Every structure is written in C-alpha cells, then in structure tokens.
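User: Teach me something about this protein's shape.
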Amino acid sequence: MDCAGRYGHLDIVQFLHTQFNAESSHTAIDLAAQNGHLNVIQYLTEFTNSSATVEAMDNAATEGYLNIVTYLHFNRAEGCTVRAMNKAAMNGHLSIVEFLHTHRSEGCTRDAMDDACFYGHLDVVQFLHYNRSEGCSVDALDAACFNGHSEVVYFLNDHRHEGCTQDAMDEAAANGHLDIVEFLHENRDEGCSINAMDDAATNGHLEVLAFLHLNRTEGCSERAWQGAVQNHHTQVLKFLRQYYPQKCDTTQSDDL
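Assistant: First, the predicted structure itself:
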C-alpha cells in the first residue's frame, strides 16, 4: 500500500484496504504528499488509520502543492517544521509561503530569504521582508549577485542592512553580470578582490574586465592570463597584453 500511495494508484490503495484490510505506514501519506496525490491522502485519512509525519506537509510545501498543504493543515495534526516555509521560499512558491505564514506557527529561518535570493524569487523576498522577522544573511546579496538577479540585488540594497562581502562583486564579475558589477561599485563599499578580474578574464567577459580596469584598483594576477589562455579568449588576451604585460606569459599562447 505504501508503494501504491507513493505513485498515486488510488484504485490499488482502495482494493488493498477493502479486500485485505491492509494498512499503510506513515510512508504512504508522506510520499503521496511529496508527489502531489491529494486523492490518496484524502482516502487514507478518511477511511483508514494511516499515520503520517511532519514530512508530509514539509514535502508538499517544498514541491508547491498548496492544495495538499491546505488539506493537511485542516484535516491532520502532524503539522510541519521550518523546512516547509524554507523550501517553499527557495522554490518560489509564494502562495504556500503566505499560507504557512497565515495559518501555521512554525515559521522559517534565514535560509528562506537567503535561498529565495539565490534563485531570484523577488516576490517571495519582498513578502518575507515585509511580513517576517527572520531576515537574511550576507549570503542573500552575495547569491543574488552571483546569479545575476539584479532586481533582487536592488531590493536588498534598498531595504536590508545585512550587506554583502567581496564575493558579491567577485562572483558577479566571474559570471559576466556587468550591470551588477557597476551597481556594486557605485552603491556599496565592500569592493572586490583580484578574483574579480582573474575570473572575468578566465570566463571571457571582456566588458567586465574593461570596467574593472578603468574603475577599480585591485588589478589581477597571472591567473587572469592563464585562464584566458586555457579558454582561448583571444580578445581578453590582447587586453591583458596591452594593460597588464607584467602578468602575461606569452609563451603560453598561440593566439597572439
């Protein structure tokens, strides 16, 4: 019965229960919730003595099944943990975050906003900021910069106080997010390290490299040249040869 519940085979669940008086373990409801099988959960709740655990609501919230979260809340007593709101936030399920905030008391942790920022769910970030008190860590802004979520970056800068680290500009540069590199340079004072230019060069982001050269003082290391050589970024190699000849080992490249 556990396996049938997991895969949503309600007819088999009903057959096993009515013909053999079979009972399931808590696994059936927990896994049915994870896989979105509300009809199985309803049957097991209403016609059997099947138990469940907090994993049921946690799993349903993680996967975005608001109908199951709602049913479990109003019809079962197992509840959930902070993982429910944390994972719903991470996956951008705003309606579930709102439901849990309104109807449940378990709350969330800073991971909720941190992970929502990582994945660029601005609406979730805004809801958590205006309605919850857990806040976030510097990982929130660092992660938004890393993944190029500019609107999240702007919101955090304007509304939160946690700030970021040098990783924010370093990683934005590494991934070619020039708009974010420019924004951080103009609006924040954490700065960057030589990793910003080194990784921008390695990944072929010439516009980022040029901006850092003209506006920052950290410079680069020999790793910039080595990475550009390895990845055959000819224009980057020419740039480095012109402006940072002391970092260039031209014997490594046939591109110039």
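Now, about its shape. DSSP finds 18 helices and no strands in the chain. The chain has a mean pLDDT of 93. If you'd like, I can walk through any region in more detail.
User: That's plenty for now, thanks!
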